[in-house]
Amino acid sequence: MRKRIVAGNWKMNTSQSEGIELVKSVIEKSIAVPKAIELVIIPPFTHLNEIVKYAKGTSLNVGAQNCAEWSKGAYTGEVSASMIKSVGATYVIIGHSERREYFKEDNRLLFRKIKEALSNDLIPIYCCGEKLDERESGKYFDVVEQQISESLFELSHEQMQKIVIAYEPVWAIGTGKNATSQQAQDMHAFIRATIAKKFSKEIADNVSILYGGSCKPSNAEEIFARPDVDGGLIGGASLVADDFIAIAQSF
Ligand code: PEP
Questions:
Q1: Which CATH number fits the domain that encloses residue 85?
Q2: What is the rounded CA–CA span in Å between residue 181 and residue 219?
Q3: CA–CA distances in Å: residue 216 to residues 20, 45, 132, 225, 234
Q4: In the chain, fewer beta carbons within 10 Å around the N or the C end?
Q5: What is the pLDDT of residues 100-151, one digit of tens each?
Q6: Mutate which of 41, 65, 165, 168 to test ligand 1's pocket (most atoms within 8 Å of Cβ)?
Q7: What's the total number of domains in the chain?
Q8: Residue 231 Cα to ligand 1 middle (Å)
Q9: Where in the sequence is the domain holding 161, given as residue range(s)?
């Protein structure tokens, strides 16, 4: 059975002390979440080491929001996958739309980052999703297919089994306007079929595909009820412990 995951991307929010208070609150409330749901906290880099310490011995997993495409060297300001691994984090987001948009990260660069993450034993959460004009012009399946094929199709079968995918329509991120559960289901099923065609049905059936984009307690239940939706990548609502936990309880 596929893993069901609810991951909170804090983006560039919280001071370290605010982050610690937030994670303590999430840990305290997480006892209300069934063990079968995997919770992941994804704070800014500066908080990773400390948050991992708080998460130790709890059911919480910790991830980073990005990693470098290189393993080490003279790349001022970059953080490598091995550094992330060395503080005890286990996940890394690759290809968030904000990285694609503001830092011009493209599918081929993201492929290199995914390989770097995998060779350091991190689980990549690979983000894909169309922009508003691509949704409106009806090109959304083509856009997502290209994001999947250019970043994932050169992985081995074994590597592909370690990938988590997040479908995040850009028009839904931080806008308060979520995709309908039908729009999410249609795209998740399409992504799964695309993976099945290239790799195998078994691999596709086992890949967790999360939905992201204005997911909140009021809409999570309907979205998570869809058969190809295996959880959520949560932005704004993950900064409020009660909301994050309520979303995780929505399965
Ligand atoms: C995100 O940034 O991954 C995200 C889904 O943000 P929000 O939940 O705030 O739309």
A1: 3.20.20.70
A2: 9
A3: 22, 25, 20, 14, 8
A4: N
A5: 999 999 999 999 999 999 999 999 999 999 999 999 999 999 999 999 999 9
A6: 168
A7: 1
A8: 13
A9: 4-248
